[in-house]
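With this grant's support, we have settled on a layout for protein records. One resulting record is reproduced below.
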Amino acid sequence: MKYFIRSVKYFFYFAILTSLIIAALVMIGAVEGDVDSIFRGGYSALWKIAIFFAVVAAVYPKVGFISRDIPVDRDWNEIRDTTVSYFRDRRYDLESENGDEATFRFRGIAGKISKMYEDRITLRRTGDGYELEGLRKDVLRLAAGLEHRLTPQNEE
């Protein structure tokens, strides 16, 4: 169900973003305000655009959201303060924690809107360490930094 909701959100996101871009082009006079002159085929092109948006929106949640493993074999109580501090430094606040799972949400409203309120990062304990789940860009960035912060450095 979460996948379907994300797909619907992205469909509307793409439609609204495209509408805003077209409205801006009309307002600055780059294109005429007539649908027939904006799109080849006029109104009949709108359903083709909608189908394109639907296909992209159906695929995007699969590639836009990932899980990443962090190989740290320490207990949550040992890494909790470091982890919460790390996320806080990157503008994520602890939303909830229960047992071996913690969720973080982005702090700023502009960031939440740009991420379409899909700003939740979930950190859960696995057999080999921890798993970070959320938006691809954020998970890759946060997982690399968190792994670096939690892994002891060998000084030579």
Summary: The first helix runs from residue 2 to 27. The longest strand covers residues 92-98. DSSP finds six helices and five strands in the chain. The mean pLDDT is 89.
